[in-house]
Design brief:
Number of strands: 7
Shape: globular
Largest sheet: 7 strands, antiparallel
Structural class: alpha+beta
Radius of gyration: 17 Å
Order of helices and strands: EHHEEHEEHEEHHH
CATH topology: Alpha-D-Glucose-1,6-Bisphosphate, Chain A, domain 4
CATH architecture: 2-Layer Sandwich
Number of helices: 7
Distance between the termini: 66 Å
Strand order of the largest sheet: 1-7-6-5-4-3-2
Strand content: 25-35%
CATH superfamily: START domain
């Protein structure tokens, strides 16, 4: 008798090209004074050693935006653990989003940031998110819920990061 099993692995890959140094991109990903300025505006706290903690804390702007949409943001919106840190080339962390109880109940996922220096002062930034066992989170970070007020996911965050590094202003800062 043969038994067939199905293993489902969901991996999302995003890449953006940024006219910036690897160090500037690394800082924009890992330093709270940068992470509070783009994407969904959270303060990133990394203990950049294997086994170190990773937390994304909500800014006041983030909390106000959540309230305007009928929700309440916790103080820590994402938590995880540093699996690998190789500044300014590679950062690998686990990732648990705590905003939504159903998503928070899903298993932790893994996010990898890879930064590669290219010619002409340009770098590629590749974000790989391994989302096995986290279908709601996969839908959220892919931007599938954008029309429901949940934002554009990883693609939007990376685009905003690129804009901030190349122009000095994030999407919201450009319209203000």
């Amino acid at each position: 008798m043969t038994t067939a099993t199905t293993t489902s692995v969901t991996t999302q890959v995003y890449r953006v090209y940024i006219k910036a140094t690897p160090e500037a991109i690394w800082d924009a990903i890992t330093k709270p004074e940068w992470t509070a300025r783009y994407g969904y505006t959270g303060y990133a706290d990394y203990d950049l050693r294997r086994g170190g903690a990773y937390k994304m804390r909500a800014t006041e702007q983030f909390k106000e935006e959540s309230l305007s949409r009928g929700g309440e943001a916790p103080d820590v919106v994402i938590e995880g653990e540093v699996l690998e840190a190789d500044p300014p080339r590679k950062l690998v962390t686990t990732f648990r989003m705590l905003m939504d109880p159903e998503i928070a109940a899903e298993k932790a996922t893994v996010v990898t940031h890879e930064i590669k220096q290219l010619d002409g002062g340009v770098c590629s930034l590749t974000l790989i998110h391994e989302l096995e066992g986290a279908p709601r989170l996969a839908a959220l970070v892919s931007g599938q819920w954008e029309d429901q007020g949940a934002g554009g996911g990883h693609a939007w965050v990376l685009s905003d990061l690129k804009s901030l590094l190349e122009t000095g202003k994030s999407f919201t800062e450009q319209t203000a």
